[in-house]
Amino acid sequence: MYGTEQVISGTIIAGPELDPIEGYICVKNGIITEIGEEHTYSANIIAPCFVNAHTHLGDSVCKDPLMGTVSGFRIQKDLDSLVKPPDGLKHRILRETSYKTLIQYIRKSLLDIIETGTCAFADFREGGVVGLAALNKALEGLDLHSLIFGRPTEPQLPPGVVLAEIKRVLLHSDGLGISGANDLDMELLQEITTCTRVQKKLFAIHAGEKNRSDIEKALSLEPDLLIHLTHATKKDLEEVAQTGAPVVVCPRSNFVTGSGMAPIAEMLGAGIRVAAGTDNVMLNSVNMFAEMEFMSKVFSIEDRQVFKICTLNGSFVMGPDSTGSIEKGNKANLMILNGSSNNLAGIKDPISGITKRARPDDILAVLHS
């Protein structure tokens, strides 16, 4: 509550290196005013909130697409049949969904984002200006930091028509989120990026998800943000590192679609700034605990680094105001976990315990600033 100082005791996952300390935090007007070390006898674990750095919330209207093989027939045979514009499954569903229904289901996913300990998200919003309006309507009254990337509704239309829509989209968004460099003519993509720069907005693009054929093209556009890079080679990663662009990985989504596993350890080794997202709601929930657990158990990455990818590293995408480490003077974007829950009782290392096994029902409270 603003104007009232809150004091929260427990094990604090503090600072940029996420060092566990026992003590207390004072919060006033959404800012951490003091951190003290003392024995508190509290089972609380106080941790930074998650940042979900890549979502497609419009997919909330379809959460159980048919996948795999039924009676020898492949229902969704590849990634393109699921998500490629303009006729992938999700695009067909979105065209058939009313504006009111779209808002209703996006709102439910936003509430789920909050309830599962996330304070900020970045969304690739289909549907042009109307799609952007639906997400902004669903966001009304919710305490979430958002970064919204728009895109044209029908990129296969004549270039002049697409560019006119792009200019409208840029007026109502934080930038553009393009499906991939192979989905549009490169000359048109170059004009689109020029429009984005003129408007001083961000340009983000999927790359290397299905194969690596679009990575070089994507990098030539000098994007501010890259998504996936599942099939990136060592040379690709070196080039990405030189650009300084952050990369958002979506391991559960890539697993479900059979796109492979992003070389996260190699990305980190190359010096790339890596964050994480849950991707399409039609394939996975917005629950970052699940994303973090999956990453911890599938990839050869130290738990502290996994936890950082899912929390603090979101600032690489969202900006420093979206989240931050638990330090005096920083905004209080905190989740307070019950360290004595049936699930967490007995953990010795709070970082590994949270990363490998914590769940939304372990949350006692969430503070957003």
TrEMBL record:
Matches recorded under Gene3D superfamilies: Metal-dependent hydrolases, Urease, subunit C, domain 1
Which terms does the record give in the GO molecular function aspect? Answer: diaminohydroxyphosphoribosylaminopyrimidine deaminase activity
State which Enzyme Commission number(s) the record gives.
3.5.4.26
> Does the record's keyword annotation contain Hydrolase?
yes
Q: Which InterPro entries does the record match to this protein?
A: Amidohydro-rel, Metal-dep_hydrolase_composite, Metal_Hydrolase, MTA/SAH_deaminase
Name the UniProt key words of this record, in alphabetical order. Hydrolase
Q: Which residues form the Amidohydrolase-related domain?
A: 45-356
Question: What domain of life is recorded for the organism?
Answer: Archaea
Spell out the Pfam families in the cross-references: Amidohydro_1
Which PANTHER family does the record cross-reference, listed alphabetically? AMINOHYDROLASE SSNA-RELATED, CHLOROHYDROLASE FAMILY PROTEIN
State the name under which the record lists this protein. Answer: Pyrimidine deaminase archaeal predicted
